[in-house]
TrEMBL record:
Residues 184-239 form the Tyrosine specific protein phosphatases domain. This is Tyrosine specific protein phosphatases domain-containing protein. It comes from Cafeteria roenbergensis. The chain crosses the membrane at residues 25-47, 53-73. Gene3D superfamilies: Protein tyrosine phosphatase superfamily. Keywords: Membrane, Transmembrane, Transmembrane helix.
Length: 287
């Protein structure tokens, strides 16, 4: 996928060759190996209708080994291969992530979603709807490439799909365009990835900066952690987010940061209090 945004190729390589991508590749290869061993055992032991069983088990073997290769070489090709597009078609191997989602995430004990700022909710892919979705939220942003959009979640709501694999991020151009669009939507926004920890937190942080609720995306993430402690941004994601924020400031989409050491202007309320205190002190000195 070509990306016209600044640093697109650089960060595509960073994501592909980063240590987290290699770790994800190892996980995918391990899962594929388990399916491969199971398939061989089924054939060797003669259990069940062998051709049919082998054919069924061959698909997850190929899918996971392919994903392992994509994590190492080109995660953006993997995103397209999974079939997740802005119109929210289902990914080719989403069922395997869904099984993990249903089994492991409820054991963590984390809330499905949290309000991280006024009108901004960060959470996981809504396993159970509507109980795991903020009521009356009219907007949804989906950053998963591995899970399908739920029809009942997006029905009657504005929906933006900016797909990326786990532990990665969309390319800068797509991320900036989506943030600019969603930032103009009225009403609350539910931002989700698979777990509600990395991809969704990064996008929500960008929204918080756009809305003036945080000075930088890094400050926004720290604010999120006070209500959603498992929020975690990996190194390659952070590098891309730094680039995106700098590009948006250079383009005038975000206000420039205050110079280091500069004293920020006081709010009108604070200024009024300070003026009243000065007048009181002046009056006390003249007595």
């Amino acid at each position: 996928m070509a990306d016209s945004g600044p640093g697109g190729k650089q960060f595509a390589r960073a994501r592909a060759w980063g240590c987290l991508s290699r770790r994800q590749a190892f996980v995918m290869a391990a899962v594929g190996s388990v399916y491969l061993v199971a398939m061989v055992l089924v054939l060797a032991l003669g259990a069940g209708p062998q051709p049919e069983v082998a054919l069924v088990m061959l698909w997850p073997v190929l899918a996971h080994f392919a994903l392992a290769a994509f994590y190492v070489f080109d995660v953006d090709v993997a995103t397209r291969w999974l079939g997740k597009v802005p119109t929210a078609s289902a990914g080719a191997v989403w069922a395997f992530w869904l099984a993990r989602h249903l089994v492991s995430l409820p054991l963590v004990g984390e809330r499905p979603y949290d309000a991280v700022a006024e009108g901004i909710y960060v959470g996981r892919w809504p396993i159970r709807f509507p109980s795991e979705f903020p009521a009356h939220c009219p907007n949804v942003v989906d950053l998963t490439a591995e899970l399908p959009a739920r029809a009942d979640v997006i029905r009657g709501r504005r929906y933006a799909c900016v797909p990326a694999l786990d532990c990665t991020m969309p390319l800068p151009g797509a991320l900036i365009a989506a943030a600019a669009t969603v930032g103009g939507w009225p009403g609350g926004v539910y931002v989700h990835c698979a777990n509600g920890h990395g991809r969704s937190a990064c996008f929500a942080a960008l929204l918080m900066v756009l809305r003036g609720e945080s000075a930088t995306w890094r400050a926004a993430v720290e604010q999120m952690k006070t209500v959603r402690p498992l929020v975690s941004v990996h190194g390659t994601q952070a590098a891309l987010m730094d680039d995106v924020e700098a590009s948006m400031r250079a383009a005038g989409m975000l206000p420039p940061l205050a110079a280091e050491g500069a004293v920020p202007a006081a709010s009108p309320a604070v200024a009024a209090v300070e003026m009243a205190e000065r007048e009181r002190d002046a009056g006390a000195g003249s007595d």
